[in-house]
Write a structure and sequence with these properties.
A: 2 domains, two-stranded antiparallel ribbon, B: six-stranded antiparallel β-sheet, four-stranded antiparallel β-sheet, 22 helices, 10 strands
Chain lengths: 196, 651
């Protein structure tokens, strides 16, 4: 390549380099624009954490209960869900949002919702203490001390809740405590769908 | 009536800003001296109109004019007067108005203090500021108008978010915004320089004070935000890598880089293109930060009213301001002539290293903050990025920054050698090694290293001062005389760098914090962090617009009473919201920190923390800002200041 050609190439490189910041900004702006547009029509919700197990059958597990009490297995859960949809709630005694959620779960139980609980990486004695303090809304409670079931369910933290439908599939998922609004807009419709 | 005047003033400000933009840039282009002379007047007029608008909103809030929707939604009769005033900027509409007001103040200051700027440059700078201002004021007027009315007016307002009813947070937005918006001035200078196609040392000298002032405010603003999270949220943490926090950290990082690279432009006429890009980038990050957190794209605990429709308007505006500036950069920057050359080991080289590292940290923070929504959009995957990512990525980049920032100022311009650094800073390195070694005996590796780094920074930062005053080597009188002759900026830099060391010591101390969550009955005693905490009682209390439950906790050390603490839970009746009021007892070396949780029967949940060196985190930020302010006082920064007469004989 001739000297002038090399010079021209260097100038071009320099010009392209100076264009790079604009390119980054344009790409970022286009992405944000798409996000905002989709948010407006409800096709994109960055606040929804999601769950990889949604729509899939529940993973197999067999967990002990608290102390001498019986726990439950995935088969028990499937059998129960075949009759009436089950809300499966993961919680822990050290989790403050779980304590806040306790009242709501109690209210759901009063309304006839069937709730099963799994305590995540928690000392069974402390779990029992938690349930005696904040009330026990659960039809059955199991203890996942190793956290394996927690991982198989694809959880991020506690509390998280699932709706298990009559076919034993996960019909609905929520990360975080259930609020009255979420119950109204998300949980109840999901339970109705799972029943029909 | 008054709100209508406010609305009118806001509309007037929009018009003046538009005129300022058009005349400022057109007049400079046509070299029309008379028109150029008109721009400062327009900037001052815009500022006065904005002050009028802001005062009108404060008036409506103080007089409980609930026919104004903004006041009805965010204020209430029972709200204390201070919060009626500060509450005007505690909501979306009011904060946008405050944003515009501060931008107006920046324009007014450039108009007032820019008399010695070349008139074409001043005209262009004011034009760019006016254009930016016009866009955001139009946004305020059309989509976020704080003066909208609603009839019939409600009898009482809904009251503000109780979390915001706090003196620290009341003054947080103005200070933070002064930081964010202040970077509009270096931005305007950068765009003006691109329009002119010329940058020289004088440009660097004008830009640096503005960048430095904004940097000082931003430093204080971030520290205040972190302090507020510490004592108001009651989670015992001070930094959560939350998108809103990251949004303020990103411009701080590039702003820090800008403050340093502007020195190189000023002293050596080098790094010009890079500095222009940093000036544009810093303001762009400020803009994106303040506005994208309101669009609802980013997931944050610090909630502002999220509205995707507003987001589109803002995005268009950002595209115009940022995209326009970067397009101009792409077209004009290749034409800028670069000046002085330098060796890799030199003051310039050290500052380039500083810039690379700071910008890398910023890039990491951007990736961590933006990855979740982008992964969701492009890959359909739900991912959350949290503290572990940031800690693992920021730390390795921060270590070389800390290592270099203490000794960088010792290097000479153009070409230097590494050996003199060892000669001049060995004592700081030795002290740091000893501190790290001693700490390593009693604690984990990371905090020990951090204490070593803090020692290194606090001592090493003063190596240049020690060197230039010949401290301990020359007679004391000689050193004092030399210290007097030392440029204030040298001292300012040393103090600011040492401030970073103080903050690191605080962060290291916080990593050794101990805490316990207990369920306590009155009379029960718990031991946390070498103190015995006894819950004496829980009683009722009442504030002007809330009721509360107050715990009385006695803290003893080795059987000797040390403190009585009163954490409480406030129940704000009008919002039906509960907040916890943390009790903090500090002696500057450590904080005792107590939070009252839920009560069940006669027992109460208490969270008890002992946080060593916690106050140093924010103290360090104040020291950094003070160093920056001291550096601003250096008369060399004041362009055109007459040189001091020596040996003046008193008359």
């Amino acid at each position: 390549m001739s000297a002038s050609g090399a010079y021209a190439a260097a100038v071009l490189r320099r010009r392209l380099l100076m264009l790079a910041p604009l390119g980054v900004a344009v790409a970022g702006g286009a992405a944000f624009w798409t996000m905002l547009n989709r948010m407006q029509v409800g096709k994109f919700d960055p606040h929804d954490i999601g769950n990889p197990m949604l729509g899939k059958p529940i993973p197999d597990f067999n967990l002990p209960g608290l102390g001498s009490a019986a726990g439950f297995s995935s088969a028990d859960l499937r059998a129960a869900a075949a009759k009436q949809p089950v809300v499966l709630n993961f919680f822990a005694s050290y989790c403050i949002p779980c304590a806040e959620e306790a009242e709501m779960l109690d209210a759901l139980k009063q309304q006839g919702v069937q709730i099963w609980g799994i305590a995540w990486e928690d000392d069974p004695a402390k779990t029992a203490d938690f349930l005696s303090r904040y009330g026990n809304p659960f039809t059955r409670v199991a203890s996942d001390r190793s956290g394996t079931t927690f991982i198989n369910f694809g959880l991020y933290g506690v509390p998280e809740s699932f709706v298990i439908g009559s076919t034993g599939h996960i019909a609905w998922h929520l990360a975080g405590p259930i609020s009255p609004e979420i119950a109204e807009k998300g949980l109840f419709p999901a339970l109705r769908r799972a029943t029909s | 009536m008054i709100p209508e005047l406010g609305n009118f003033a806001l509309a007037l400000a929009v018009s003046l800003a538009f005129v300022q933009a058009v005349i400022g840039i057109w007049a400079a282009h046509r070299r029309d001296m008379r028109l150029m002379a008109a721009t400062p007047g327009l900037a001052v007029g815009q500022l006065l109109a904005l002050i009028g608008a802001a005062l009108a909103l404060v008036y409506a809030s103080v007089h409980d004019d609930f026919s104004v929707i903004n006041v009805a939604e965010n204020s209430a009769i029972a709200k204390p007067l201070l919060y009626k005033i500060t509450g005007t900027w505690g909501n979306h509409e009011g904060s946008i108005l405050l944003w515009g007001l501060i931008l107006g103040i920046c324009g007014g200051l450039v108009a007032a203090f820019g008399r010695n700027l070349p008139s074409a440059l001043r005209s262009r700078v004011l034009g760019v500021l006016g254009g930016t201002s016009a866009g955001f004021l139009l946004f305020c007027l059309t989509t976020s108008n704080p003066f909208l009315r609603d009839f019939p007016a409600p009898h009482d307002g809904r009251g503000m978010n109780p979390l915001l009813q706090d003196p620290g947070l009341a003054f947080h937005p103005p200070i933070l915004y002064m930081g964010y918006v202040g970077f509009a001035v270096p931005f305007a200078f950068a765009v003006a320089a691109l329009l002119e196609g010329r940058i020289d040392a004088a440009w660097g000298r004008w830009v640096r004070p503005w960048a430095l002032t904004s940097w000082c405010f931003l430093t204080c603003g971030i520290a205040m935000g972190s302090w507020w999270a510490y004592y108001e949220l009651g989670w015992g943490g001070y930094w959560f890598w939350d998108p809103v926090e990251n949004a303020s950290l990103m411009p701080w990082l590039t702003g820090t880089a800008l403050v340093h690279s502007a020195i190189v432009v000023e002293k050596r006429e080098s790094l010009k293109i890079w500095t222009v890009l940093l000036a544009i980038g810093t303001f762009s990050l400020s803009l994106s930060g303040t506005f994208l957190v309101r669009s609802g794209i980013l997931n944050s605990v610090h909630a502002f009213a999220n509205d995707p429709a507003r987001g589109i308007f803002i995005l268009g505006l950002l595209g115009l301001v940022i995209g326009g500036a970067l397009l101009l950069f792409a077209l004009r920057a290749p034409l800028l002539k670069s000046g002085g050359v330098f060796a890799p080991v030199s003051r310039e080289g050290a500052l380039v290293l500083n810039n690379i590292l700071l910008c890398s940290i910023c890039a990491v923070v951007i990736v961590g903050t933006m990855y979740p929504p982008f992964a969701d959009l492009l890959l359909g995957q739900k991912i959350s990025v949290g503290a572990p990512f940031f800690n693992a990525t920021v730390l390795p980049l921060a270590i070389p920054v800390f290592a270099a920032m203490a000794v960088g100022p010792l290097l000479p311009w153009k070409r230097g050698r590494l050996w003199p650094l060892v000669v001049h800073a060995w004592w700081a390195a030795l002290a740091a090694t000893i501190v790290a070694g001693v700490c390593a005996i009693g604690m984990k590796v990371l905090p020990a290293l951090a204490f070593g780094a803090a020692t290194w920074l606090i001592l090493g930062s003063f190596a240049e001062v020690v060197e230039r005053t010949l401290l301990f080597r020359a007679p004391v009188a000689n050193s004092v005389r030399r210290a007097r002759g030392l440029p204030v900026a040298v001292l300012g830099a040393a103090i600011a760098h040492a401030g970073m060391g103080v903050t690191i010591a605080g962060i290291a101390g916080m990593s050794l914090a101990s805490n316990k969550i207990v369920e306590a009955k009155p009379g029960e005693t718990f031991s946390v962090g070498g103190y015995q905490w006894t819950l004496l009682s829980v009683q009722n209390g009442e504030g002007s617009n809330y009721t509360s439950r107050i715990a009385n906790i006695e803290v003893m050390k080795n059987g000797v009473p040390y403190a009585i603490m009163h954490p409480s839970r406030r129940n704000f009746v009008s919002q039906g919201q509960t907040t916890s009021d943390v009790a903090i007892r500090t002696n500057l070396m450590q904080d005792l920190y107590a939070v009252l949780g839920d009560e069940k029967g006669d027992s109460a949940v208490l969270r008890l923390h002992v946080n060593p060196l916690a106050p140093w985190i924010w103290l360090g930020a104040v020291v950094m800002a003070a160093g920056g302010a001291l550096s601003l006082a250096d008369r060399r920064l004041r362009v055109g200041a007459p040189s001091r007469l020596r040996n003046v004989v008193p008359a």
